[in-house]
Amino acid sequence: MRECGRLRAAPVIQSPTALVRMGTMFKHLRSNDAGDPKERLHVLADEELMHLVYRGDATAFEVVYDRHADAAFSLAYRMCAQRPLAEDVVQEAFLSLWRSRARYDRQRGSVRTWVLGIVHNRAIDALRRRSTRDRGLVHDEGIAERLVAPERTDAEFARREEAREIRDALEQLPDEQSRVIELAYFGGMTQTQIASMLDTPLGTIKGRMRLGLAKMRMTLGDPAEVVR
Amino acid sequence: MSADEDPIRSDDCAANAAPYVLGALGEAEYDAFRTHLETCAICREEVAALQLVADALPAVAPPLSAPEELKRRVMAEVRSEAGWQRSRAPATSSPRARRRWLAPSIAAAAAAVALAVIAIGGGGTSVRVIHAQVLAPHASASLRLTGGHAELDIAGMPQTPVNRVYEVWVKRGSSAQPTDALFTITSAGRATVGVPGSVAGAEAVLVTSEPLGGSRVPTRAPVIIANLS
Predict the structure, then answer these.
(1) A1 CA: distance to closest CA in chain B (Å)
(2) What is the CATH classification number for the domain harbouring B22?
(3) Which of A134, A149, A164 lies at the terminal end of a domain, its last residue?
(4) What digits encode the pLDDT tens for the residues B114-129?
(5) A/B interface, count of CB pairs below 8 Å
(6) What is the tally of structural domains in chain B?
(7) A72 in contact with B at a CB cutoff of 8 Å?
(8) By the 8 A CB rule, do A184 and B77 touch?
(9) What is the pLDDT of residues B124-150, one digit of tens each?
């Protein structure tokens, strides 16, 4: 099984000194202080919540879950195309996130990126465990309509707009480049499997992936600014 | 690492950066590229640039709402583990109480344990896979040992009843020592659970069904027994 965040840079275990420093920084954020803990937690940034999660605060973890579960499930379902498998992937990913919470390092990216990285890796594991024969045969047709997430807040509206920019950037690529990116990222296929399926030299597949991603980066400017 | 030892030749340098950030490398390619990254600044820079785009790709997925039932399952497990860790204190059960539980169940089960040990690889750290006895029909479990660390891989296992979780124990001598590992089974009947700490010197790794939050002393007979001896 791929480790949490395996496709990211190597996970960094926070040093005891850094954690003590963070403990001082976030001392005022203890969720068991007076008042409604969950209400107060909702105003905290993800990174502040993760400090509480690091100390085993399940309520803080629930807020993190609430913020990112829809995106996690959307990605898992896009990859797995089956609701039970997508649910298993998300369940495994969040429990893995809870159990490996000491590995979160804010210097390496946002909590959302970390969560989705774990979901992506778990979904790849799940897809590669399935036999080629099983792939794509059973899809939950109609689930997308039943579970479409409403735009409830301005933040969600803004996120949809950002998503549209990224989708447009992918769709603007030549078909052969967008296809290899989709087969790899959402299909969980290895470059060798893609080369075999498309009957194309492996070097060409690598080149299409690189060109496609590089063009998307140029189109989007700094994607880190688009996806916060 | 010298250039001669690097399996990724210089003319391939950075060619795997895009497949790497997209998750499209096979296991062996992945390991080789990770090793290569440690010494190649060009590839690290390429990965950092392309990773930004790969991190944006989840936004392409059509937005869906995660099912409420999924949240209930995840948070039940999280709260169970959080509560158990908070309430965790040095074991207070008497050795007699533990022996009373262990003596009949383990002794009886040990006679029926189907044990298979496979040694994998050579040279570096050896890996052993132990096929454990599982009481549930059609279920299977194996314990993968690397050095002193162990990971349980379970398949075909029934889910625990509501308000119960599975708990991993390490048997040393006549006592079963609780671990931090509480887990539930996926809808596909699977679970992969790391056994916290070292199992060096332990006799067996056990799994029991316990109340939410886990127990400090087993309350039920084990449903999985992986005998290490």
Answers:
(1) 9
(2) 1.10.10
(3) A149
(4) 444 444 444 455 788 8
(5) 196
(6) 2
(7) yes
(8) no
(9) 557 888 999 988 888 899 998 887 788
